[in-house]
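Predict the structure of DUF4280 domain-containing protein.
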Amino acid sequence: MSCPQVCSGATLQCSFGAAPGVLNVLPVNRVMAGAMPAATVMDNVPILNIAPFAMCQSPSNPAVIAATAAALGVLTPMPCLPAIAAPWIPGGAPTVLIGSMPALDVSATLVCMWGGVIKVVQPGQMTVLVP
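Done. Here is the predicted structure for DUF4280 domain-containing protein.
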């Protein structure tokens, strides 16, 4: 069974995030999936591609560490600012290329520098049935 192609508008979730985020894909490769720009493993830029996940609860995040220390040790979530240092880790065989980069499928993961694991919850493709 193949994995669905991820495209712009996909819903993402970080293991330390308080709310889902959205994947934004610029149409630079001119490849569409379900009428939306298709994503590659290099669509990993914070803010540009990876929207924040509301509040971060990672005990490794310096902002959370500072806020927790100020609250006398009570874990205090702070606004999320994804810190991504590497591309998506493909989950399947990266045999489909988009602009010489492997296409992003729903089994891929992304690792935040603060320890969070970002996964695709919904790939962004919508099938509309017209009667």
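The chain has one helix and ten strands.
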